[in-house]
Each structure stands twice: as structure tokens, then as C-alpha cells.
Design a protein that fits this description.
five-stranded antiparallel beta sheet, Chorismate synthase, AroC fold, alpha+beta, 371 residues, 8 helices
Length: 371
């Protein structure tokens, strides 16, 4: 099912951009977890539209409702249904576009696949679907933080041609990231990014960029060879996010210019465990976590909905001038940060359960390094 993600810890999202609501069903969350609704709402607030001058002006409160799976603040082990109702739909904004596939949108491909496409907004392809991921991902994040101490922090590291330089990634917090509306902890770069986004908005255009993410506290051993590797699942999760076009973990594409002696992460003794001197692997070797911080990047294209008029054709092949209409983000990066965190949480929660299901601890004690 294309709307379901995960093996043991699963989410299924539902709803359209301009329908009654959007939500998710989380299945596989262990019973007895104290679930904070305020933590879920906080992540939704970071993703919601209209939160600053850098985002779409669409106004939605995005208030979370829990329909099942929770009693007295604790999970029951049964499916957790999460719902956010839409209140500020404006399907009329898209009336003129019913017969015109918008450039770089999913209108054409959805129609070719299903024979029909949502006539308002992007339907299931709309970025509004990501609020369901954020709600479900917050449940996953609370699970892995409570049980395993895992922390996930993402931030904007590039907008257009402006790149951030930040050396304190190991101690980075969401509060630090949120200090600037653009969600970049490099204050000088944040100012330049903000100016670039406002300029694009004034010109009725849009900008792309990069979201970086670090996952701390992931113990060694998570990940399934051969096809469900940790890095492969992260890539799938991130590339499923609307507007995501690229994924790189650890050294990413820069490894192509390095030699093996430069790139190898040499092992060192660290107490009763092993550590590595460098982390070009991004915390993953052979598709399995090695105990180091997991670091990756996600590249996002410029939002395809822009205000500028564009020459294109309708479904009959007739040339038309498509006038920009509707509400859109001049840059999706600031709102993409909690979405990246949510999808990382879903991957790690699922792999944590899968590791527990076949851990060698069930048969023999795990071997430890003894210096």
C-alpha cells in the first residue's frame, strides 16, 4: 500500500489538501508509552502554514485530535488514530487549473496513473499530507527517546546559493534551530537566507535548498541487511517527502573525490565499546548503525507553485498561459525541518522494534569489546 510506511512500527496517512482533514494511523507502537499530546502539537506548530512571513499565508491551526489507541495518557498497543481537520480550504483557487497540468506538479502523473486527479491543490501529492507524517513521527520520536534516549535534530543548511557553516552540530538543539524563522543556526547565513526567500517571494518565484539532520544516541546494530539497510530506508523515507530530490548520508557525494585511506573511519577504544575517529560513514556501515551519530542531508527543489505566469499546454495540447494563483511557500525548507525529523523517527522506531525482535541477546549475551 503506497500510503503505508514501516514494517513493525507503521503509519498510514490519509486525506487531501482541500478535503475535510488529514491524518494518520500508527500501528505497532508498544503499550504503556506515556504519550505527550503537547509534544505532537509542538511539532505540528513548527510545520503549520502561516507561521512567519517566509511561509504560505494559508492559516490553519492544525490542532491534533487523538481518536484511538490512548487512555489516561498512555498508549494501549492498539492503532493510534490522529486527525487534523482542515478549516481554511480554498479549492476555488484551482478552478482554472483543472484542465491544465501544472509544471513540475503531480497533476499529470496522477491522472495518467489513476485516470483522475484531485481538482483542488495537489490532493495526496500536496505538502499538506506531511502534517500526518509529523503527527505520526512525533509518536515514533517519543518512543525511541523514552526507551533508547535517541534525539533527532534537523536544520536548514542551505537556501538557494546560501550555505550555512556551523561547527557545533553535536550539541545542536531544536530550540537553537528555531531561534531564526528560517531554522538555520548559523546567524549570518540565516540573515542571508531570509533575504533571499523574501526576494524570491517579491519576484513571485521560489527557492530550493538543503535540510541537514543528526540522530544522536542510536545504538549499534540497527538496520537490516541486505535491502532494508538503515541508510536505504532513510533514503526511501526522505525521498518520499514532497519536493525532496536528493539524499546523502555521511560524506555523501564528496566521497567520490577521496581515497580509501582518507575516507576510512578508523576504530578506537572508547571505554568498553568501540568508536571511530571520524564519521564519514554517517553512523552507518553495511546498512547497520555503528553507534556513532547518524548524519544525513536532504535536498529540496524550489516549490513548483509560483506566482509568475508560465507558458505550458493543457491536456489537449493547446498552449495556455498559466497564471499563478493560490497560496504557496516561496521556500519549503523552514517547514520541511520537522517533516525530516518525523520520517527519521519513523525509520528508527521501526528498526528498533525489528532489532529487538531478533536480537542475539535472546540466545547469547552480546559480545563486548574489552580493551
Amino acid at each position: 500500500m503506497s500510503s503505508t510506511f514501516g514494517t513493525l512500527f507503521k503509519m498510514t496517512t490519509f486525506g487531501e489538501s482541500h478535503g475535510p482533514g488529514v491524518g494518520a494511523v500508527v500501528d505497532g507502537c508498544p503499550a504503556g508509552l506515556e504519550l505527550s499530546l503537547s509534544a505532537i502539537q509542538a511539532q505540528l506548530d513548527r510545520r503549520r502554514p502561516g507561521q512567519s512571513s517566509l511561509t504560505t499565508p494559508r492559516q490553519e491551526g492544525d490542532q491534533i485530535e487523538i481518536l484511538s489507541g490512548l487512555e489516561n495518557g498512555k498508549t494501549l498497543g492498539t492503532p493510534i488514530a490522529l486527525l487534523v481537520r482542515n478549516h481554511n480550504q480554498r479549492p476555488g483557487d484551482y478552478g482554472a487549473m483543472v484542465n491544465v497540468p501544472r509544471p513540475s506538479h503531480a497533476d499529470y502523473t496522477y491522472r495518467m496513473k489513476y485516470g483522475v486527479a484531485s481538482q483542488s491543490g495537489g490532493g495526496r501529492a500536496s505538502a499538506r499530507e506531511t502534517l500526518a507524517r509529523v503527527a505520526a513521527g512525533s509518536v515514533a520520536e517519543q518512543f525511541i527517546k523514552t526507551v533508547f534516549g535517541v534525539e533527532i535534530v534537523a536544520w536548514v543548511s542551505q537556501v538557494g546559493r546560501v550555505k550555512a557553516s556551523f561547527d557545533e552540530v553535536a550539541s545542536l538543539t531544536r530550540a537553537t534551530v528555531d531561534h531564526e524563522a528560517v531554522r538555520c543556526p548559523d546567524l549570518e547565513a540565516a540573515a542571508a537566507m531570509t533575504a533571499a526567500i523574501k526576494k524570491a517571494a517579491t519576484e513571485q518565484d521560489s527557492l530550493g535548498g538543503v535540510v541537514s539532520c543528526i540522530c544522536r544516541g542510536v545504538e549499534a546494530g540497527w538496520g537490516e541487511p541486505v535491502f532494508d539497510k538503515l541508510d536505504a530506508l532513510l533514503a526511501q523515507a526522505m525521498l518520499s517527502i514532497p519536493a525532496a530530490k536528493g539524499f546523502a548520508i555521511g560524506s555523501g557525494f564528496s566521497c567520490a573525490a577521496m581515497s580509501g585511506s582518507e575516507h576510512n573511519d578508523l576504530f578506537v577504544a572508547s571505554g568498553r565499546k568501540l568508536s571511530t575517529k571520524t564519521n564519514y560513514s554517517g553512523g552507518v556501515q553495511g546498512g547497520i548503525s555503528n553507534g556513532q551519530a547518524i548524519k544525513f542531508e536532504v535536498a529540496f527543489k524550489p516549490a513548483p507553485t509560483i506566482g509568475k505566469a508560465q507558458k505550458t499546454v493543457d491536456y489537449e495540447g493547446r498552449e495556455v498561459l498559466l497564471e499563478g494563483k493560490g497560496r504557496h511557500d516561496p521556500c519549503v525548507l523552514p517547514r520541511a525541518v520537522p517533516v525530516v525529523e518525523a520520517m527519521a523517527g519513523m525509520v528508527l522506531a521501526d528498526l528498533a522494534l525489528r532489532q529487538a525482535a531478533h536480537s542475539s541477546d535472546l540466545v547469547t549475551p552480546r559480545r563486548q569489546f574489552h580493551p
